[in-house]
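step: validate -> pass
step: tokenize input -> pass
step: predict -> running
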Amino acid sequence: MLPSPWGYVYSTMSRFLPRVALLLLSVFLLGLSPTLASPPDSNDILPLDQVRPGMQGYAYTIFEGDQVEKFDLEVLGVMPNFLGPKQSIILVQLKGPKVERTGVVAGMSGSPVYLEGKLAGALSLKLGIFTKDAIAGVTPIEDVLHPAAGTGTPPAATAQQLALPNDALARNALPGRSALEPIETPLVFSGFSPAVLQQFAGELQGYGFVPAQGGSTPARSDDAHLAAGDMAGMVLVSGDASINAACTVTAVQGDRVFLCGHPLLNLGDVQLPMARSRVVTTLSSELASTKIVNVGGAIGTITSDHLTAVTGKLGPAPAMIPLDLDVVTGLGEKKLHFDMVNNSKLTPLLVAITTFSGLTQNAIYGEGTTLHLTGEIALKGHVPVQVDSIFAPSDTLVPAGLPIAFLVQSDFARLFTNNFEVPNVEHVTLRVESLAGRKSYTIESAWLEKGEALPGEDLKVRVLVRPYRGDAKIEETTVHVPDHISRGTTLRVLVSDADWMNRSSRGFSFGLIPGSSGGPVGLDQLIALMNRDRRNDRLYVGLFVPAPTMVWEDKELPNVPLSQISIIDGRPGPGSVQVLRESLASEASIVLGGPVAGLVSLNLQIR
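step: predict -> pass
step: emit ->
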């Protein structure tokens, strides 16, 4: 049946036109409707050496809903070794009303390209921005299905096929941002505000993603029924908010799915959840057209992320890391749950984004309060990593919750960069309690009860501390002078915040990358070191004696004889041992209830 209002035209003209003319008119009117079709079931492929300029073909993608649409294209030529040695591409021009209006759309990567009715490749590259012609690059199908093989350089006749104005493409250095580059992959955020994404925009763009807001839909029974031209992608976060990468399916062979036509992150062999994506609409933009998508249910596992394609396997999805976030304020309590991928490069950033969003994007959260973060990171076969820190708002426009996100990101980065063992994170539990007002403290000065002390004596130390916009007050604590200290020795009393005390007692090993010179050499040692970090809401007083301390991996060995230090540091693999000129003899702390900053050093004479 012809679309309205053409039905009326058809009925009127049928009274006067001969049957042949009527048939021609029907074909013309039907051609005004969009070309909606399903890709052919044939998996016949067209080798790269059979591709010639001027070949007419077509491709499939989704512009709206679940309907796969067909659009035409023409081969402009072949570019040998474009992606790398023996990695050629096919250059095509897209044709048709929709693609000429939208150009190459973010999320279109992976769209199957057919020449002579055979599968020739996957749409994967676009030509710059603000271009008048919809020109795209196609990854040859051999490289999509068998990425390790490579297509090789085409015959000499094919190598001369490309002829574009000024030969600019052949140089792959086009002016005005008109170089061929991978089609952007929409990174679909559901449950995240633009303000949250803005805080992490630089890191996200560094991964090659285009942040886009979208939604998530309940799993459907037909989610796993994929065909060429459908959309699927990689699940990064799910639960009360979700982050997913979406692109187009090139081919399905049994339970294997080939998509994107280029890497998402070039991670190599991976185990990441794969989910169905459904297009809501396509946003046309002269700068960067993109698909607006909802993410459906998990349908399998992304197993490979290489230069020429992303490969998945239909079936069960791999396990993810559960994260429970509990936000407590004077207005009530909010419990949130998320699941994140377990990947050394992605998880630290995803934890930061998800924690920041979950903390700030709920009705009970408000700026201008002091935030106390506690929790633990549970790892299989190891003791948990304890998280305990407090953060006060600043006078800048930086959200108070952002330092919390950065701290959690730092902890995960330290865990995942150990060189000896892949951490198996079983569960993450975080609790953020909001305390009214800005609670922060600065150490202004300090003094000793007396300038001299005897061995074995307890010495009072007084510290002048000034709270934010408040009157200074004196805090008092006691440090013990060891019995073995020789008379006439000068000791150092350090009054400081947690960071200075950590550095003074651990030297340069504090905060080093695991496995680096002077740092921990295993996951157990790293966890022990992290759990011994002093808390930033405390004022610390340390008594240091002029005797060497040996810092060996995660261990602090005070008062070690120089002869023993020389023997140990001369063992194979020196460098993980540090020698400090002082040893921490005793330590005391005072809990103030907010972050502390400052440093005062005093001398104490032993008589």
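step: describe -> The first strand starts at residue 56 and ends at 62.
step: cleanup -> pass
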